[in-house]
Amino acid sequence: MRFTATNYNMSLLDKGQRERFDVVLVSPRNPLNIGAAARAMANFGFHNLSVVAAFDPTWREARSAVGAPQLLSDAVEAATLAEAVANCTLVVGTGTLTYRKPEQPVVSLPLLAPLVRQELNKGGCIALVFGSEKHGLTREDLSYCHLLVEIPTDPEQPSMNLGQAVAVCLYELATRAAQSQASSPHSEPAATTERLELLASVIQETMNAADYSPPAMHPANHHDLRLLLRRLAPSTHDTRRILGIFRRILWRLKRTPVDKNGQG
């Protein structure tokens, strides 16, 4: 049987769907790994690459390499993960469970495709996030993720090379998500990471105004709020409504400060 370019690509997500994917590399240290990740993206038709807190010498070397794909030249540089995934409605972290206790739902890679297809049908944008070669994603990084995906590997060698991990994940998503049964489009899109972060900040400010906890607990509270909001997965409309409620409460609290005994 003769394969043409047309039927060869029938097994992949279409171009419009792949354009709603971002691959995010957090603090990569090896230019060869960055190049391998870019090559894997090009293989499966993904073009949106973001690099967070890049190590300058490594990043310059990767981008100047002979034959580097155009997507490296077009890659977005971000100072923080929050900035890189601000417009995404589903953020998927990657990593092994060998050395961490996850705080978000864990999905095996073969089971991720239907969730991705569902998000695409809702009109959402997806980020697939990879950590540095040495440490992977930190607990703080993962607080921005709705899910943690685990690549099934042998227990004796659980971690994968960065470039290989990108290739395996993109192959699974490009093929299995395309083959997943399409559900009817959801009329209400999910809230973006940027909106969830705004909501978490307003709730945190309200908690502070109500003297909810000592200042030393504020960072932990904000971390927990990030995780909670991603588990709840509010829609854009719900997020707007909740923001309005907490802003009103905050306005009232600032007009009537709470005393040390918790009384208005």
Give the secondary structure arrangement, pairings included:
Elements: H1 5-8, H2 15-18, E1 21-26, H3 31-43, E2 49-52, H4 56-64, H5 70-74, E3 76-78, H6 81-84, E4 90-94, E5 106-108, H7 112-121, E6 126-130, H8 139-142, E7 147-150, H9 162-179, H10 193-209, H11 218-232, H12 236-255
Parallel strand pairs: 1-2, 1-6, 2-3, 4-6, 4-7, 5-7
Helix pairs in contact: 3-4, 3-9, 7-9, 10-11, 10-12
Q: How is this structure best described in words?
A:
This protein is an alpha/beta fold. It folds into two domains: 5-179, 3-Layer(aba) Sandwich (Alpha/beta knot); 193-255, no CATH class. Helices cover 47% and strands 11% of the residues. It has helices at residues 5-8, 15-18, 31-43, 56-64, 70-74, 81-84, 112-121, 139-142, 162-179, 193-209, 218-232, 236-255, and strands spanning 21-26, 49-52, 76-78, 90-94, 106-108, 126-130, 147-150. The protein has a seven-stranded parallel β-sheet with strand order 3-2-1-6-4-7-5. Helix 3 links the parallel strand 1 (21-26) and strand 2. The longest helix has 20 residues, at 236-255. The radius of gyration is 21 Å and the shape is globular.
